[in-house]
Amino acid sequence: MAAATVVEADATTSDGGAAFSGAQDRGWDNSQLRTYSFTTKPIPRLSHTDPMAQKLIDNEEPVVLMDTNLVYPALKWDIPYLLENIGNGDFSVYISENHKFLYYDEKKMPNCKNFVPKSQRMEMKFSEFVDKMRRMEEMGGEERVYLQQTLNDTVGKKIVVDFLGFNWNWINRQQAQRGWGPLTSNLLLVGMEGNVTPAHYDEQQNFFAQIKGHKRCILFHPDQFECLYPYPVHHPCDRQSQIDFDNPNYEKFPNFKNVVGYEAVVGPGDVLYIPMYWWHHIESLLNGGETITVNFWYKGAPTPKRIEYPLRAHQKVAIMRNIEKMLGEALGNPQEQVGPLLKTMIKGRYDQDLS
Ligand SMILES: O=C(O)CCC(=O)C(=O)O
């Protein structure tokens, strides 16, 4: 990871072990973390006033900020408060047959006729979501729900007041200092304990503000592309890793053996900076109760007029995405034609020493 400056610490196995030793009153313990095969290093936890925190954000490296007060008025949010105040709008709720909520883009489904999503989106009132969640909690089966809805103007007055009380001064300054584009949305996530959002990357900058419960966030640098095997760009699961972290298929995805991650557990009041193009796997801790998060997604800064070489890993990812998109459009049938054409282009031509 050539560009990393200060995210350096001893690696540990991904059950949290050494990365989190020492914190006694953190409100969770290692038994609440799922176990994976790869190693991780801790993401630094810093005060937002620490110059190192600013340096990390400038370098587009993750950091947990402990004291931004970004969503201070929302720290009182819980299910009863939201039931009373969130309003009568419709909420997107995903229902999954297990703990994993693999994202898929419904608009890309016509590209892949045989694609069968493992979770379904349903629109419902907040109270219907809570009823469903309570029923599932009582049954204790595999099926789960996860509410993921962009905050909009259907929310009740008290939520609007809380929202206006967010620390916009601080976050607007972060945006301005780095030349980021506008805030595109705030996603509200209300999840059951143990829910997992599998590894994926977004093309936006993200301040991820934890409000209730704890989430474990495992991040991977954009240079881990070759270890994480994202679905093709035209596939509904574009930007998602094909690896099932619970049961990795090393024959199909051998480089996953070499993946290296960074991780942190965030709790109420913590804000995790997830840089654009960084992979993230996020799990609500086991036996930790419901979780509530609001994220702040920003468009990245415009491409600089003078490009510096060598290119950074995320710039190469953007180039690969553009090539895949162009080929898909040019060939007409991306699902069947892009892969074979790319293979024809490189097979036997780039493998050997060409001197
Ligand atoms: O919290 C989660 O489960 C997923 C959130 C996420 O992927 C994001 O904020 O980009």
Q: How would you describe what is shown here?
A:
One of its GO terms (biological process) is regulation of vascular endothelial growth factor receptor signaling pathway. This is Hypoxia-inducible factor 1-alpha inhibitor. InterPro entries: Cupin_8, FIH-1_dom_II, JmjC_dom, RmlC-like_jellyroll. Its cofactor is Fe(2+). 23% of the residues lie in helices and 23% in strands. The chain has 355 residues and is α+β, with helices and mostly antiparallel strands. Helix 1 links the parallel strand 3 and strand 4. It has 2 domains: 33-297, Sandwich (Jelly Rolls), CATH 2.60.120; 311-344, Helix Hairpins (Orthogonal Bundle), CATH 1.10.287. Helix 7 packs across helix 8. It contains 8 helices and 16 strands. It is globular, with a radius of gyration of 21 Å. The protein binds 2-oxoglutaric acid.
**Unreliable parts:** 1-7
CATH homologous superfamily title of the largest domain = Jelly Rolls
Indicate the CATH class of the largest domain: Mainly Beta
Name given to the CATH architecture of the largest domain: Sandwich
Determine the fraction of residues in helical runs and give it as a percent range: 10-25%
Number of helices: 8
Order of H and E elements: EEEHEHEEHEHHEEEEEHEEEEHH
* Whole-number count of domains: 2
Which value, in Å, is the CA radius of gyration? 21 Å
How would you sum up the global shape?
globular
**pLDDT average, as an integer?**
94
Cofactor: Fe(2+)
Organism: Nothobranchius furzeri (Turquoise killifish)
Main location: cytoplasm
Subcellular location: Cytoplasm, Perinuclear region; Nucleus
